[in-house]
Amino acid sequence: MASWFYASEGKQQGPFPEGQFRDLIAQGVVRPDTLVWTEGMAGWQKAAEIPGLIGGGGAPPMMPVGGPPMMGAGGYASAGGYGGAGGGSLAVDFGILEFTWRSIVLLIGMIFVLPAPWVFVWYTQWIVSCVRVPGRPNLSFTGNAMTLVPWYFGFIVLAIAISFIGSQLLSNLLFIVQIVLYWLLIKWMVANLASNGQPLGLSFTGSIWAYIGWSLLFAISIITIIGWAWVAAAQMRWFCRSVEGTRREIVFKGSGLEILWRGIVAAILCSFIIPIPWVYRWIMNWFASQTELAPRGSL
Q1: Beta partners for 110?
Q2: What percent of the chain has pLDDT over 90?
Q3: How far is CA 114 from CA 94, 126, 152, 232, in A?
Q4: Of 36, 56, 103, 252, whose CA is between 20 and 30 Å from 231?
């Protein structure tokens, strides 16, 4: 019996057995203008365009072809589209109220120190679910807070010990340790990304020495007042190149100038406190729109 897929709010839903799919049509979930797909179809089509589907007729004839074509940003590809070597820009979508209360909970958790690893993972799971990736529906984060516990509390104990010793050299080494922990955090987060509940198998291959170098360069660039924006753009491109395990290249298109003026506007608006959620969403949407998935070898 045929299995059906349909598109809803940019996400691929299914597969559904034909009987269940017919029920969705009867309930109005699948409408005449809904994009649908089943085996034997070259690409996504509106339900009304398929003979016998809307109106109670029989299912269209089947032909032996592969799985469903994956959906891309702003539309739906034919077989072998974004699910294979295609691409498109990322997007971020979240409500202002939800962002506000979740951010307040995160801030409180960080202030109280002990709940920080669990609150951080909880917040990351939510924010990752708000990211839309072409051909990767229902993005999620599967990391466990217990992984962070020894890193987080170990660093706190080390920082307290160094503060009692009062050594400037050890304080500088603590800064390096902090950078290393951020590097480990990035590797852990990338490795725990999943789509539709299945691990993506990604890995972050940027070396610790390169990450330390970028971090120090960024810190130095702040002295120039504006140079940090170009360093940030270059670091983003390095970060994207360092993510492996996908058949598509991750490319950051944003420039230093674009980061600079947006950073200035964001700093001015955030000084008024109330616009912070809107500013955060605006910045995240821009960074996502500048991050594209492209067929390997196409650049």
Answers
A1: none
A2: 57
A3: 28, 20, 10, 31
A4: 103
Specify the higher pLDDT residue, 297 or 217.
Answer: 217
**Tokens, residue 192:** 């725990």
In the numeric block, the tokens 């509940």 are attached to 197
Position 213: which residue type?
G
What pLDDT, in 10s, does the model give residues 130-147? 998 887 778 999 999 999
Q: Are 67 and 77 in contact (CB under 8 A)?
A: no
Please enumerate in sequence order all residues whose Cβ is within 8 A of that of 275, keeping only pairs 6 or more positions apart, or say none.
Answer: 269
pTM above 0.70, yes or no: yes
CB 41 within 8 A of CB 76: no
Q: How far apart are CA 103 and CA 279, in angstroms?
A: 14
Burial 170-201 (b: 16+ CB within 10 A, else e): eeeebeebebbeebbbbbebbbbbbeeeeebe
Alpha carbon separation from 195 to 34, 61, 106, 139, 152 (Å, rounded): 23, 31, 25, 5, 28
Q: List, for residues 82-121, the tens digit of each pLDDT value.
A: 334 446 889 998 999 999 999 999 999 999 999 999 999 9
Q: Any alpha helices (H) in 27-167, and if so which ranges?
A: 96-111, 116-129, 148-165
Specify the residue for token string 């699910």.
83
CA angle 233, 90, 197 (to 5 degrees): 125
What is the residue type of 232?
A: A
The answer on pLDDT for 163 being more than 70 is yes
Rounded CA separation 136/134 (Å): 6
Please measure the distance between the N-terminal and C-terminal CA atoms of the chain and give it in whole angstroms. Answer: 43
Non-local (6+) Cβ contacts of 73 within 8 A are: 10, 82, 88, 89, 90, 91, 132, 134
